[in-house]
Amino acid sequence: MMKPKALVLPRESMLKQVCSEECKQLIESAFNPVWNDKGCDLTEEELSELVEDAEIILTSWGSPILTDAMLEKAVKLRAIGHAAGTVKKRMPREVFDKGVRVYSAANRIAQSVGEHCLAVLLTIMKRLPAFNAEIRQHNWKATGQKGRELAGSTVGIVSASSTARAFLKLLAPFKVNVLLYDPYLSEEAADKLHVRRASLEEVMSCPVISIHAPALPATEQMITRDLIALIPDGAYLVNSSRGAVFDEEALIEELGTGRFAAALDVFVKEPIRQDHPFLQMSNVLLTPHIAGASIEGHLALMYAVVQDMLAGFAGQPTSYEVTERMWETMA
């Protein structure tokens, strides 16, 4: 039997980051691949010619956008695998009308984000940046302050997204009590996650808070000034979702008081401007939107979607497939 033609669109520099040697071998064995060896992105005209007899298209960051016109020509197309996060801006929703199956590595990236959230949370709870700064100034236990323990804490989580679920798995050994706000989460699903459904007000009143909301019109500035004011003194806040979910001006004002600590990976405007108030706050740990970036995580992305795609073709359950029903609530 002839193997299906697969277009592997990422340029070589990106492919090295998201496709391991094991993944390349899997692609070669399962498909008849056409690799993008140009060293740059294919033009729309070049891609339009190639898609006509393609059954599989594999993409990642920087790959060409798949337009309606291209998909009209791709009469044999069975599946698209995106070795990156959201697929919403990579292709039109109408792809589902053509019976094309869509796969995204977002859930694999979520594993890296979960690790990041746990790492930065423990970092600010244990006051590691402050202790590091003190000892470099030859101040040995100068302040007499102590860190806090995560074990047994009450943790508030906003959104039951894939990153939140990855974070929850890592929190399990700490035996925390989790309150979770997500309007789409059923009681049954909450029970399976071992969390209690709660209002946004309850979650923002927790001593530990982690934000995992997707970037949607409905989530823009959903954490209002009034909600930020509910954050308790001495609390710890982690945001690895999007800066725009907060009223950032209100967040700047509250963090400026020093009454709680935060670990922020995302901001309304990125890169963060050089005079941003966050840069002057010792109670804020800053990272440059890298929560999902890890060497091992990125290298596993294409393998994850290809393996899942093959499972789908074989009639087996999938873990990375994106359905039309998921479209409205995903980032």
Automatic annotation (TrEMBL):
UniProt xrefs under Gene3D superfamilies: NAD(P)-binding Rossmann-like Domain (3.40.50.720)
Pfam families recorded: 2-Hacid_dh, 2-Hacid_dh_C
Every D-isomer specific 2-hydroxyacid dehydrogenase catalytic domain range: 18-321
Keywords for the protein's UniProt record, in alphabetical order: NAD, Oxidoreductase
Coiled-coil regions listed in the entry: none
Residue ranges of domain D-isomer specific 2-hydroxyacid dehydrogenase NAD-binding in the record: 118-291
InterPro entries, sorted: D-2-hydroxyacid_DH (IPR050857), D-isomer_2_OHA_DH_cat_dom (IPR006139), D-isomer_DH_NAD-bd (IPR006140), NAD(P)-bd_dom_sf (IPR036291)
GO molecular function annotation: NAD binding; oxidoreductase activity, acting on the CH-OH group of donors, NAD or NADP as acceptor
Top-level division of the source organism's lineage: Bacteria
Family note: Belongs to the D-isomer specific 2-hydroxyacid dehydrogenase family.
Family matches, as PANTHER family: D-ISOMER SPECIFIC 2-HYDROXYACID DEHYDROGENASE FAMILY PROTEIN (AFU_ORTHOLOGUE AFUA_6G10090)
Protein name stated in the entry: Hydroxyacid dehydrogenase
Species assigned in the record: Paenibacillus thalictri
Phylogenetic placement of the source organism: Bacteria, Bacillati, Bacillota, Bacilli, Bacillales
